[in-house]
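To whoever is covering the structure queue this week,

Two jobs came back overnight. Logging them here so there's a record in the thread.

Job A:
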Amino acid sequence: MSGGVEAALVRGGVELDALQIQSSGGGRAVDLGAGFGMHSIPLARRGFSVLAIDSSSELLRELVGHAGVLPIQIVHGDLLGFRDHLKAEPDAVFCMGDTLAHLPSLQAIELLIADVAAALRDGGVFVLTFRDYSAALTGEQRFIPVRSDAERILTCFLEYEDAHVTVHDLLHEREGARWELRVSSYRKLRLAPEWVCGALVARGFEVRREAGLGGMIRLAARRIPSVQ
């Protein structure tokens, strides 16, 4: 889906550049749902010490293999427990690639936002990307071509419920002269950008909304410094 690790790392770096995320050295960042390191590795290359958390041991093995000697602390665990692994206030927290929609409930998202607000330094940033599933697609619009090459064709099919959308991945893979079909599915929250923005503002963030990669919504939220 990512088009290969190196291509994904380039896209991750481009996204950080668009956000003007840089460190002159000594900066600390947290990557929630880090996966194989699409943002963790570019962050570390830009001078950040990174705490990278993911629940997938397979993806984290990929991250270990590509991180080399970069300053990345890798944690296999629940991203909602990220504060247990912090050694100091982070300058930036990232929750990218539709990770937010995989959380179990809106209450879990509110808890995450509260924890990020409590953990960040004054003026620190919380960057989130997610897909807007608030308006249900209908008919043929529910079939979404994701990626294809000479060996694989990936298509998604969406089924909507009141609070969730079930995503069915239809993967055709070439096996010699034949195509084999593999099907998997998972549920996501139907997040409305306005609701997420409101939850961030309620916790003391000022929020900038913009277009992210691959049609995602990107929110760059800055923690407003507390008044002494």
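Job B:
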Amino acid sequence: MIVTGSLTNWIVLAKQGMAHTVISANFPPNIDITKAPLAYGDRALPKLNRELKDKELVVRQRALVALCDVLHNPEHISESIRVGIVVSLRKLLEDRDATVRIKTTEALQVMAGHAIGRDAILEYNVIRPLSKLFDDEEYKARMLSHKAILMASKSPPGPEGVVNAQLIPVLVNKLMDEEDEIKEIILDTLHFCMKINTAEALKSNAMEIFTHLLHHENTNIRSKAARDIMDLSFPLEGKDAACNTSAVPILSQLLADESSSVRSNAAGALMAISITTKGKYASIQAGTIQKLIPLLNDQSSEVRLNTLKTITELSEAPPGRSELLESLAEVQKLVHDNESAAIRKAARIAVKTITWKP
């Protein structure tokens, strides 16, 4: 061993305590004391599952923190299901400790982001226990439980599971008193569920509540409420409900909203409502046509497309046709739209309907 440096330097180091070994009482910088240490290889998840059932609170907490990290690797989700972790998580949803409930819902939310996880949540009947956290005193527990339900409902058979758990009335009622962030999540969940079942939402007065949210100051909530009205208006009962509330006049006003997503969804909702004669005349009486014409030049192709489809339906009523003939040139311009073939096709149909003569 070759040592460089003067004797004086060694004396200074010795005085500073650097010339001998000292074992620190602190944890190494790469050790997280809030997480349970993982076992090696395929023993990791079975060990975590045992710790999730431990009587000691701190053991359960540390196991959940470690599990949430592990589940972010999709390869571990199927193994966690195999060793029974979903069953353990379902029981922990009722734990008295808020941290345990929060981390449990987080773990289920991560699992629900994958098809195999969504299937497991349905198979082990986790949706109903998850919904009990909608009333949790901890905001984060409520938010994560809603997020987990949303993730589970994004693809079949998730929406069926939510509907079968009879959660539609619960979700609709929560729109009245929850925080804005959670309201957005609920509106998204209902959007997916109403693709397979609108009857439960209609029975729960969803049309009235969605209409109320059209006045909301939050742009995302206004946009999603208009989208959900469109979903709810596809069946005849939904169209009638929209006409019987103040939905049509408010949607007509939203055609001038600053947000393109709000304008697009408002036009789409009016399109769905205006399929029936009752809906057509309700839209015409609300002055919808004059608000639609400026949207033919909207920068958003989605807004222009929904506008053309709504105009086509309103032109099927004689008063609507007469009013739209005055703006026929504006509609004809979109026959040569450079951005979208769908818009060009919709424009041709609109022109043909407006110029139709008996």
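Note for Job B: The longest helix spans residues 98-112.

Please reply-all if you pick these up so we don't duplicate work.
Q.
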